[in-house]
Amino acid sequence: MIDIDQTGDVLTLAINRPDKANSLTRDMLAELADAIEEYDGKVLILTGRGKVFSAGADLEAAKAGLATDPVWEQLSSAIAGFKGLSIAALNGTLAGGACGMALACDLRISVPTAKVFYPVMRLGFLPQPSDPKRLAALVGPARAKMILMSGQKIEAAEALEWGLIDRISDPEHLMETAHQLAADCVAADASHVAAIKRMIDA
Fold first, then answer.
1. Whether the predicted model's global pTM rises above the 0.85 cut
2. Using N-to-C axis directions, what is the helix angle for 141-148 and 131-139, rounded to 10°?
3. Most buried one in 17, 89, 90, 109, CB count within 10 A?
């Protein structure tokens, strides 16, 4: 249920469970984390199949404890630790624990119809440990509280205004936009890509 494509120096991981709104099982999360940890290229693109990026944890898996499983943090840490450029190409709505994947990326692009929400307050769970700080770093503490504490659904246009996403693209050109953003990194030496990222993130 994870499509893995490595073409040259670009690794594309696509969540492929559109009949279940790309909800995630523990095995899917572990597969994503393992693929990223093993990859040593220049560009990582995360996306989904269908009209939803991910609805977060699979409902039955969440009831069995997935919502609080450390595998979410393992995945976001793998993305954040990637030495190259990471891009979340949001083909649709991003919800729940899946938000951590996008928050850990360097760039987030989105289709116009996407929404972002993280209903941990209503569901009675805590967000994954790194997610609140990454969210607040992007949008500020008050807006982070609107998402995590007030449960607000943020539409793409507002998310762009807040800095939660970086560019909006029509669905037909979403992946093309991602590859355009990655083009300079693909053309550069891997050590140069890593050095600039370190300078920014330091």
1. yes
2. 130
3. 90
- Using alpha carbons, select from 55, 3, 51, 47 the residue that is nearest to residue 24: 55
Q: Token digits for 77?
A: 């840490």
Stated length of the chain: 202
Residue type, 100: G
Q: Which two tokens stand for residue 91?
A: 């083909």
User: Which is nearest to 184 in space by CA: 176, 175, 193?
Assistant: 193
**Which pLDDT score, from 0 to 100, does residue 125 have?**
87
User: Tokens 């891009």 appear where?
Assistant: 87
What are the domain boundaries of the chain? 2-201
Tens-place pLDDT, residues 94-138: 999 999 999 999 999 999 999 999 999 998 889 999 999 999 999
115 neighbors 96 (Cβ within 8 angstroms):
no
Q: What is the DSSP string of 56-96?
A: SB-HHHHHTTGGG-THHHHHHHHHHT-SSEEEEEE-SEEEG
Q: Given 3.90.226.10, 3.40.720.10, 3.10.50.40, 3.30.2130.30, which CATH number is that of 2-201?
A: 3.90.226.10
Q: How far from each other are the two terminal CA atoms of the chain, in whole angstroms? A: 35
Task: Report yes or no: 130 and 77 within 8 Å, Cβ to Cβ.
Answer: yes
